[in-house]
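Training component of the fellowship. As part of building independent skills, the fellow (R.M.) carried out the full modelling exercise for a liganded target. The chosen ligand was 2-aminohexanedioic acid. The inputs are recorded below so that the supervisory panel can assess the work.
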Amino acid sequence: MVERSTVSSCNPARPDDVVATHPAGTAADVDRAVAAATAAQKVWARIPVPARAEVIAAAGAVLAERKAELSHLVAREAGKILAEAGGDVQEAIDMATFVAGQGRAAWGATVPSELGSKLCWTTRQPVGVVGLITPWNFPVAIPSWKIFPALLAGNGVVIKPSEHAPACCEAFVDACVTAGVPKGLVQVVHGFAEPAAALATHPGVGAVSFTGSVPTGRKVAAAAMETGPRLVSLELGGKNAMIVRPDADLDLAVDGAVFGAFGTAGQRCTSTSRLIVHPDVAEQLVDRIVKRVGELVIGDPTDARTDVGPVIEAAAGARIGAMVDAAVHEGASVACGGAAVEVDGCGGTFFAPTVLTGVQPHHRIAREEVFGPVLAVIEVADLDEAIEVVNSVEYGLSAAIYTRDVNTALASVDAIDTGIVYVNAPTIGAEIPLPFGGTKHTGNGFREAGTRGIEQFSEVKTVYVDYSGHLQKAQIDNRPPVQGGGAGR
Ligand code: UN1
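Fellow's submitted model of the complex:
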């Protein structure tokens, strides 16, 4: 494996502006990091859970104090516009509050025993050290989704952040350490595939959690099951659809489509990338979306007037452009956008918000994740066909339906095969106390956030205590026969 020897992140809007440079980690660095986190975890796991929770709450407070500074860093390193960068940091603050609260909540169940003088309950134990591989697009929020619950559950952490956002991860971990997270408990290893693979296969890592693409996620899972951690949670791609029914509030649907598709320059795993619409309203809806797109300001994300920032790097722009070209080749039409645009004074890659019409469900652009500001419009005859199209892709993260009819809305919630469904709201914007994740190839059945975070990073333990003072035999049929047949009288 030949890899670059340094990780160097730059401002996606101005690639000459280098944000951070670190030596690229190796498998040996991962070994050292796992050993150090393991040593620190042994002490941490003995601290009572509410006391661990207090440290996490304090980390939230430090993040809140540093919110402005961190938001600027997110905008500069990940290219997110300031409002979204602030939202990213706020999501981490909220996660700290929520997870800290879980430190005084129930973690298990008590269950009545089938025998007398016996207690049965479940509890949770840490897995030891968790290995985290995180993306650049929520460079503070996603580490927080994983690190806070992992710490609350009593684990140590080794995180390999995206090579595009090393400084955001360092800043997040620094806030944790300032708040009192023991030094050494959360280790950061920067780099590319080598440390990621080492983490996924490390015998000293009890769980690995990955957010990123399907091909990499599959490699992580296969490698991890072969030699490494037993718990593997994956959050992979999406091909999120918004259905707009003819009875929908079209103003609302236009707002939702523009925000869902072009917010974060389409670079969320939850971004809306398919608009599934009835022919009666298709033209009107597309015209209105295109008009709104014309009003969006594309530019430097640190300028408060900007609506759409850059894509993460030139290669991403080239990939998105090739997907749009392929769609046109397959028969789609470009209603707006379709290519990268120059922004004065910025050398980064800015892909124009793009609406494609005439897309058919079998086109590549209707099936493959774009991870860029591209909305494919697919016309369908009725609700059944709309749902069939929503469910026809390999992903199952998020979907939205716009309708004023409550029966249509709820029937769609039932029929749509995704982990998250929105009614009259776009496909982005999942809230942290609720489980986050998807069906099919979007993941492997795990959900993040909410109370699921603790489950994700711990093992359940079932405990039986027999205080009868004599041997009681379970699974031995020792009950008196029921008198008088089935009615029991
Ligand atoms: C992601 O893009 O990987 O639901 C996560 C949302 C955000 C999370 C996105 N809260 O859009």
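The panel noted the following from the submitted structure. Residues 82-102 form the longest helix (21 residues). Residues 137-138, 211, 268-270, 428-430 surround 2-aminohexanedioic acid (CB under 6 Å).
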